[in-house]
Every structure is written in structure tokens, then in C-alpha cells.
Write the C-alpha cells for this entry.
Amino acid sequence: MARKAQLEREIKRQKAVTKYADLRNELKAKGDYEGLQHLPRDASATRLHSRCMVTGRGRGYMRRFGVSRIVFREKALTGQIPGVKKLSW
């Protein structure tokens, strides 16, 4: 399980991205790359990393469901995800 600090850091980055999004787009449109360098690093959307909503795991993240592969499997087997069932042939 991910540490609480990692989860809080991601939330902080998300807030910074939304706060500076308009300013970043404006500076990019002008071509003012010097001005972009003066913005905080965490204001860039490429610094965001998708994490599982349940465990905070960064690897094996399934974007469609918002959880990691491990949590997805547990929830699917218990029937907590509608429309998902184990495949057998």
C-alpha cells in the first residue's frame, strides 16, 4: 500500500495543475517559454501520476475503473463491479 504522503502529494499536484492551467495555455500560445520556466514544476500536467483510489498503488492502474489490477480482481470476483464476470471457455 502506498504511503499517505504519496497520495497527498498527488492531490497537491492536481490542485497546482488546475490552478495554473489557464496561465500555462496562455504562455504556450504566446510562445513565452521563459515565463513557463518561472511557474512551479508541479503545475505541469505531465507530473501527474494515476493512482488507485483504494490502495494508492501507482502501478497496474486501470483507467476505466480507477483502481489497480489487484483491487479490480478482488472486486470483480465478489461481484462489486457491475457487468464484469470471470471469463471461462
